[in-house]
Amino acid sequence: MIGLTAGILSFIPYVGSLTALVLSSTVAIVQGWPQWKLLVMSLGVVLIGQFLEGNILSPKLVGDSVGLHPLWLIFALLAFGSLFGFTGLITAVPLAAAAGVILRFAVKRYRESNLYTNASGPSPKILLESHHLDNDGDR
User: Fold this and answer.
1) Of residues 115 and 125, which shows the higher confidence score?
2) Using CA atoms, how far apart are residues 43 and 22, in angstroms rounded to an integer?
3) Rg of the chain's alpha carbons, rounded to an integer?
4) DSSP assignments along 28-94, one per residue
């Protein structure tokens, strides 16, 4: 029940994990008193679970679905969260995904352009005329 409640509340940042921590600690203290073993085990389960979810599962799952590397997602969440607070955390993933799509499109277009491939460089006639201008001086 504790995990189910925390899972339902996890759509609100920190509320689900804080609920799991408080409820599991309270139950562990009540059932395991006066020993601390049950409390330490419950804290370990919650903290390890939150670490795995926050650092491995969420970036991997969200990154795969939006097409971004997990490192970029973590960077976007950190940057948007520190700049815009809670609103930044909510908008970080969609904006980072949109920026990724735009950047990939721009890089693809640049790599296909003549500027990158140099497929149509200056014609030999233009090069000869510019050389002739430099030597004559009167044209």
Assistant:
1) 115
2) 9
3) 29
4) HHHHHTT-SHHHHHHHHHHHHHHHHIIIIIHHHHHHHHHT--HHHHHHHHHHHHHHHHHHHHHHHHH
